Amino acid sequence: MRYFFSFLLSGCSVLLLLASQPAFAIEKTVLQLKWTHAYQFAGYYAALEMGYYKAAGLDVEIKPLQAGQDVVNEVLSGNAQFGSGTSSLLIARQDGAPVVVLAAIFQHSPYILIARQFKPDQSIHDLTGRPILLRRLSDELLVYLRREKIPESGIRSSVPGMNTVEELMRGSVDAISGYISNEPYQLKKAGFAYQVYSPRSAGIDLYGDNLFTSEAVLKKSPERVARFREASIQGWEYVLNHPQEAIALVQKYAPNESTQKIAFEMNQINPLIRSDLVSVGYMNEGRWRHAAGIYREAGALNANFDLKGFIYDPNPKKDLSWLYGSLALTLIALIIIASIVFYIVRLNRRLNTSLNQVTHLANHDPLTGLPNRTLFLDRLEQAILRATRDQTRFALLFIDLDRFKSINDQHGHSVGDEVLITCCKRMLGSVRGSDSVGRIGGDEFVVLLDHVGDAAGVLDIAKKILATIQLPINTEGLNLSLSASIGIGLFPDDAQDDEGLLKCADLAMYEAKQSGRNAIFFYSEAIAK
Question: Quick one: pLDDT at residue 16?
């Protein structure tokens, strides 16, 4: 019922405005991009070229970032009213910049770690002790490396004007920070073998490009802010539904970029927007709290940072005292709204479903549906508390598929994905209902065996898992075979905390690989060697 009255009041407000106000006067407005013209800003180009800004009463100029400029400073100084920024807007807000984020265009961050491919079966842990080059504001990648236990002694900071791709290609460093639609294209075009690692595999999931303004602009022209935001979102919806037209639009603003490069950028960027789950621009306060936590972990944000005033509310509460003098108009609106109540209820249910899907996405691996690192670590902590209280034992299995990368290289990622899904189902079928299986990396899985007795029982389940993985996999006309290396850590025998137990199981798995793969090692056996 509260949705009914909320919509009723909004409908009355719109009717009164139409009756009492003239058409919008054209307002000169500047949007400052955070980079040069590229596909990552395609929605704004569409909003301008398709007339959405003009229909909203806005004469918009889109400015690329020039050398020496900072997008936040351009907006706060009044040179622009709106800007496009990363989730590091949180840091700017803490440092005294009164920025207000209006819409999250990318539901996932495009920042990645790109490593030189220097060995088969390469993983993020192979970067240990190797030089890594990170750009400014790469805090999410810094936290990613910390969570993966990569020593910070090898991390370097780039300087303005440095070509990080050239540094990687000539071997000055073994990994660089990058943007999913930029550096991979350059490396691919140069024929340089590389590997991509995403912070999302470690539970780090930030918003990407965000539309923002200043408190001063919002206070002075709240209606203009609302109109600009809505027209910009319309532009993004257009490019998502018209990919070929979007490429042509971008090429108009970036004439030196090839059609192939823009298409590559589009194919990398569009999946980050997740319009299949939520409406374009959707923001959730919980996701911003998650981002603030990541920046605190990186040491860039204070513990007492408050989000108040940072997140824009597109539907603020209004002073409705004027309604008392508009009873007749209210009754008319009531009749109109009553006919679409059923539609509103259905729409609200769809929104709740979308929100539940986003929550599930934040805690589960999108390919296999297994718990991701964040959710699995939570289950591991609960298992430790339970076992400590009940004085019971449990086992943690660290499973790495042997030579899985060669399947991807020879047959493509679609075949590799089918292999991962098949292995996931086989693992689930090999454990008990009380056990948990999670995916924490590309071909790395973990299994929590709750309430185990002796090591022999654990070994039986591990052998069962190994045997099912070895069974042939038939997909896309191929008959594939692979094996796995399994490391086992026991609680409380080997370690008494989650971090220590993971390390024990990982070390045991590494010993299984060193022994020739397709093997099972307990941590006690591994350290004995």
Answer: 44
Helices (H) and strands (E) in the chain, counts: 21, 17
Question: Which of 472, 369, 365, 475 is CA-nearest to residue 415?
Answer: 475
Q: Beta-carbon neighbour count of residue 126 at 10 Å?
A: 17
For residue 428, give the amino acid letter.
Answer: L
Strands 436-439 and 484-491 turn out to be unpaired
All residues at 6 or more sequence positions from 98 whose CB lies less than 8 Å from its CB, including other chains: 76, 214, 215, 216, 309
β partners of residue 83: 32, 212
If phi > 0 it is left, if psi is from -120 to 50 it is alpha, else beta; for residue 281 that is left
Report the pLDDT value the prediction gives residue 170, as an integer from 0 to 100: 95
Percentage of residues of the chain with pLDDT beyond 70: 89
What tens digit of pLDDT does each residue of 57-91 get? Answer: 999 999 999 988 999 999 999 999 999 999 999 99
Per-residue confidence band for 454, with pLDDT thresholds at 50, 70 and 90: confident
Q: Using alpha carbons, list the distances in angstroms from residue 142 to 151, 182, 203, 297.
A: 10, 20, 13, 9
Confidence check: pLDDT of 232 > 60: yes
DSSP code at position 201: G
Cα–Cα distance, 274 to 196 (Å, whole number)? 21
Q: Are 240 and 270 contacting, i.e. CB atoms less than 8 angstroms apart?
A: yes
Instruction: Starting at the earlier edge strand, list the strands of the sheet with 194-197.
Output: 155-157, 132-134, 175-179, 111-116, 194-197
User: Token digits for 292?
Assistant: 């603030």
Average pLDDT of every residue of the chain: 89
Residue with the two structure tokens 């803490």 = 94
Q: Output the CA–CA distances (angstroms, integers) from residue 95 to 72, 78, 88, 300, 498, in the order listed.
A: 12, 18, 11, 10, 35
Q: CA angle, 185 as apex, 36 and 263 as ends, to 5°? A: 75
160 Cβ contact partners less than 8 Å away, ≥ 6 residues apart: none
pLDDT of 134 > 60? The answer is: yes
Q: Contact, 216 vs 208, CB < 8 A?
A: no
**Among residues 171, 170, 168, which one has the least CA distance to residue 184?**
168
- pTM of the model as a whole: 0.59
User: What tokens were used for 284?
Assistant: 């959730």
Choice between 402 and 121, residue whose per-residue pLDDT is larger:
402
8 A C-beta contact, residue 511 and residue 525: yes
The answer to whether 275 and 243 are in contact (CB under 8 A) is no
Instruction: Give the span between the Cα atoms of 269 and 263, in whole angstroms.
Output: 10
Which residue's structure tokens are 């824009």?
A: 312
CB 117 within 8 A of CB 194: yes
Nearest to 201 by CA among 413, 503, 445: 445
Amino acid at 310: F
User: 306: part of which helix (H) or strand (E)?
Assistant: none
In one-letter notation, the amino acid at residue 514 is Q
Model confidence band, residue 524 (pLDDT cutoffs 50, 70, 90): confident
Confidence grade of residue 377 (pLDDT, cut at 50, 70, 90): very high
